Amino acid sequence: MKKKIIVGAIVALFLLPFFPSNVQAAKGDQGVDWAVYQGAQGKFGYGSDKFSISQIGGYNANGLYDQWTYQSQVNSALAQGKRAHTYIWYDTWGSVSIAKTTMDYFLPKVKTPRGSIVALDFEHGASGNKQANTDTILYGMRRIRDAGYTPMYYSYKPFTLANVYYQQILAEFPDSLWMAAYPNYNVTPSPVWSVFPSMNGVAIYQFTSTYVAGGLDGNIDLLGITDNGYSTLPDPTPSQVSDVYRAGQNYSVMEVANDKGHVDGFGAVNGKIKAEGWSTRTKKYQYAFIRDRVTGKELKRIKLKDLPRADAAKVYNRNDVAGFNIEFNQKDVKGHSIVIMIRSTNDPKGDVKGGFNDLTETRWYLDI
Question: Which end of the chain, N or C, is surrounded by fewer C-beta atoms within 10 Å?
Fold first, then answer.
């Protein structure tokens, strides 16, 4: 990257999920990020480094470009037992069209594991419209989330404050910031906390571009986010799983802002795709969207009928909980890897006019 400016109770309830304790094995781990300058195999600073984040390419003034080192760097990091992640150079100039072009091109090319970090590197290419810049970042992060990866925003504080409403990012993607601030350009093997970019939601701190002599970015994982993609989600217990339709029912509740939801069943049954679960209906209408996990493309849209879910309403002490139960022909999504998204919206067509909230279950997908 470029040089930066220096500066309880247990509830037994059928079809409601088990809540595992948070895994934070990576909290405090240090690691590196790489571009083409670190070569085909990448470069670690110290034997204690635990992760790498490689540039796949991006969009700049010349349009889309690939980073030829990406695949081999990922392979090299994994072969050394490190956690490999991905970032995309993201000059959008406030254009959602550019953002879409970038995500359409790169998401299918990501080679790090499902659940791993895919960060948007937005340190250049801002328009003069702060909201437009923010909209392109949110668009990209939603696409990353819906493709089954962990979205992050990378930049540095002065650029962010000048060009982005970062609070909007955190409202939808809590603890998703990867921020840079360096004390100087001397070799810096560990963070200098006196220059930490004090902002809410910082999950990774890039504390130097001279981690070792000759130059290398050094990072510290503050919350354990670099475990994503490398820690195992809880397996359903045998007594709870009778078929693949229920295989993911123990995943934790989806939550975005004040909205909650859960998929209790999702699978192919007798030539049909079926899904059931519940969500909070904070808007007038509820829709289910079936989306391609890799491209984010909408494949199917179904208006939901509200079904009683007194169990979930009682547990979460909410009166806006509604159940859903849908099915459609498997042939409608043949050849796709699909995920389900539940949208609460004021738009009768299921679009976003008048306000909306989306809950996407990216952990549970079907290859049709």
Answer: C
Do 266 and 117 fall into the same domain?
no
> Based on the structure, what is the number of domains in the chain?
2
**pTM as predicted:** 0.61
| End residue of a domain, out of 207, 227, 247 | 227
Q: Which residues of 258-281 are buried (b: 16+ CB within 10 A; e: fewer)?
A: ebbbbbbbbbbeeeebbbbbbbbb
Q: Are residues 73 and 194 in the same domain?
A: yes
Provide the residue range defining the domain that includes 298: 238-367
C-alpha to C-alpha distance for 261 and 333, rounded to whole angstroms = 23
Same domain as 222, residue 277:
no
Tokens of 92: 């959008």
Q: Considering the domain boundaries, does residue 352 fall inside one?
A: yes
Asked whether residue 17 is assigned to any structural domain, the reply reads no
Name the residue among 150, 171, 153, 152 with its Cα closest to residue 163: 153
CA-CA distance, 112 to 84, in Å (whole number)?
6
| Domain end point (choices 168, 200, 227) | 227
**CA–CA distances in Å: residue 88 to residues 123, 253, 306:** 11, 29, 40
Q: Does some domain include residue 216?
A: yes
